[in-house]
Amino acid sequence: MDMSDKKGPITLKIILIGNSGVGKSSVMNRYVNHRFTNMYRATVGTDFLSKTISIDGDTVTLQIWDTAGTERFQSLGTPLYRGAHCCMLVFDVTSKASFSALDGWRKEFLIQGEPKDPSDFPFIVLGNKTDLSDREVSDKLSRQWCEEIRAEYFEGSAKEDLDVEKPFLRAAQRGLQQVTQLVLCLLLINTHAQKPIFFLCLTCLFFDDKRYITPYSTKNTHWKIQDISR
Ligand SMILES: Nc1nc2c(ncn2[C@@H]2O[C@H](COP(=O)(O)OP(=O)(O)OP(=O)(O)O)[C@@H](O)[C@H]2O)c(=O)[nH]1
Ligand SMILES: [Mg+2]
């Protein structure tokens, strides 16, 4: 079922956080605009870029929010993190400090963003600057931590255009899962003891938490889709 037929392209909010200078803006610019510069211009406030892509037959617009690493301790206000469908934690593989800081960034995201199910919220961890030789964070160490927090790990280089697309595609997929849950409802209709048992599979899509399916009758043989968007 193509969801774009129903409601137009889905917009997914993907937020990039991490220390200043790790390359959040560079990664975003590489992915969206296919550009890179060695010049460092710290992000002031928040930027965002959009990119429309196709995933598994669905058209989705990624709204990528690039935040300023320097503003971590300033009051950004909760609206920034709220409503994110996926959070990308970015660090620089040549900076152990930027890796260690991710735990704090993650916690802050969970507090400020208030995702509905914090234990199940998708985090993608991205180790950037793999083109540099003075690496301080091993692939093993980052993978270990990702396992602990149940995040997915990617690494690459915005500069060399190495594996920049993969983490965004995965973020989009995980974000899409946040929006859409495929629910298979198996209905057993057993009318007569001698008669065959009918199995009816219902495939229901949930959009933005605005629709859900509920049992209609007490025997659970009828279901209705409720729209709570209004
Ligand atoms: N060698 C190398 N340098 C990179 C890479 N990605 C970014 N840089 C450089 O690192 C510096 C910081 O990059 P930014 O993308 O501005 O970092 P940021 O995380 O957005 O920083 P804030 O906006 O201050 O939070 C710039 O000079 C970039 O050119 C990379 O993959 N390899
Ligand atoms: Mg920046």
Word description of this protein:
The chain is α/β, with parallel strands linked by helices and 230 residues long. It folds into 2 domains: 10-176, P-loop containing nucleotide triphosphate hydrolases (Rossmann fold, 3-Layer(aba) Sandwich); 182-229, no CATH class. Helices cover 25% and strands 31% of the residues. It is built from 6 helices and 10 strands, in the order αβαβββααβαβαββββ. It binds guanosine-5'-triphosphate and magnesium ion.
Quick synopsis:
The protein is 25% helix and 31% strand. It has 230 residues and is an alpha/beta fold.
What brief labels describe this structure?
single chain; 230 residues; alpha/beta; six-stranded mixed beta sheet; 6 helices; globular; binds magnesium ion; P-loop_NTPase; nucleotide-binding; GTP binding
